[in-house]
Amino acid sequence: MNSATGLPSVEAIVIGASAGGVEALLSILGPLRAGFVLPIIVVLHLPEQRRSHLAEVFARRVSLPVQEASDKTPVVSGTLYFASPGYHLSVEQDRSFSLSLEDRVHHSRPAIDYLFESAADAYGPSLAAVLLTGANRDGANGLAQVKQRGGLTIVQDPQEAQVATMPQAALDIHQPDHILPIRGIGRLLVELERIAC
């Protein structure tokens, strides 16, 4: 715990978003500087039938290298990862990715809970988890799990979210460390990275 800011030293950031998530993510990730050291792993609910263009869209707009997470590859620092459509994404104990076709969670595959719960197990207190705008309850349980394992939990202020259901669902079951508007979340990630450097 860095006493000056009261923020922990984290090794990875996981983010979950659904409806309204692309805009929210661009606002948060767009300003991050080149050379940002932490890995950022994102599950964004998308219609499943088509290939995801998220990596291409974000690669043009953010300074970090962007990839679709692939099975068995290690989590590399300073990289932005997106879950592939149609697969659950989890982080294994050795901090590599695992893709699976297990049943949907909250009608979603990839599910935010799936990523958050596995990352909580892999990173424990050195994980920061962010839950953004969305129209379902996915992510609430996963966020509670991150908190239980000692990680840092951040929820977008439901009053500012394009769709408040998802952040509100998280607030219904636990008190996160931070409830912030998008700009505040972006600033917090910058602070977390500064401490980690």
Which structural traits does this protein have?
197 residues, alpha/beta, Rossmann fold, seven-stranded parallel sheet, two-stranded antiparallel sheet, 6 helices, 9 strands
3D architecture notes:
With 197 residues, the chain is of the alpha/beta class. The chain has a single domain (12-196), classed as Methylesterase CheB, C-terminal domain (Rossmann fold). Helix content is 31%, strand content 19%. It contains six helices and nine strands, in the order βαβαββββαβαβαβα. It has helices at residues 21-29, 54-61, 112-123, 140-148, 165-173, 182-196, and strands at residues 12-17, 40-44, 66-68, 80-82, 88-91, 97-100, 127-131, 152-156, 178-180. The chain has a seven-stranded parallel β-sheet, with helices on both faces. The relative contact order is 0.20. The mean pLDDT is 93.
Question: Could you provide a short overview of the structure?
Answer:
The protein is α/β, with parallel strands linked by helices and 197 residues long. Helix content is 31%, strand content 19%.
